[in-house]
Amino acid sequence: MKKITVWKLVFLALISSFVYAQDPVIPVSVITSFTPEFGTELINTINGEGLEAFPSLEADHDGTLSINSFVGTGTAGVFDYDLGAPYSIIGFSFWNQNNGGPGAAGSTGIQDVTVQSSTNGLDYLNVPGAPTVFAQVGTNVSPPEMFSFTPVDAVFIRIVVDSNWGDIITGYAEIAFSGVPTILSVADSQLESAVSLFPNPAKEQVSIANSSNLKLNQAFFYDVSGKLVLQLDLEATQNRQRINIVELASGLYLVKIVGDQGQTIKRLVKQ
Ligand SMILES: [Ca+2]
User: Fold this and answer.
1) How far is the CA of 36 from the centre of ligand 1 (A)?
2) Does 1 fall in a domain?
């Protein structure tokens, strides 16, 4: 009986991974180096605002307006997407800024790009076979451009924008990735759930707690530009260690916590 249950689970896992393969991977957050224009918000490029179905890799996007797309100052910059978990990413759908505005005939849309992936939010590699240009969109309601490439392991995707279609400001309507979740190593997945940072956001001190009996060795604090700003030895720690962060500037940090058998990355907001 037990054996049958196990096989049922394996079968269900296979089926669900097959179903997952057709499902969009929606980033949990996105940040950019562009300064927003017209009161636009980046969240409207990952939350389905303006899409006729969500989540979707194929739905049309309405004419781009300040409430459903993002527009930023200038013509070059970076968008960083956090997928929230490890995925094997096989492509993405991209809805460029269209004729809805602000630039005429989609001139605000992104043109030349480099697409990169990262598993730790620090080290990025170019994605082989990824697009290097997004098309100009001259219609109001627009379908996505759909791209596929050889699968890459990613928790983070970065799009480096080098140019747009002629406007002095740059934007796009929506993005959704496609892929399947990848399985973490047993130790990584144990640390992922056993290690926490609190309080978060934190002001003067943050504690690293570890509810597993896996040994932790070191913690590395990186700012959003990927610069290492603090490194600590955790070997003396049993289950908890308090860290003074008064010296850190306010902002978002990635904290890589490395143990004997695995590692995990946590996000920390310093107030
Ligand atoms: Ca949108």
Assistant:
1) 15
2) no
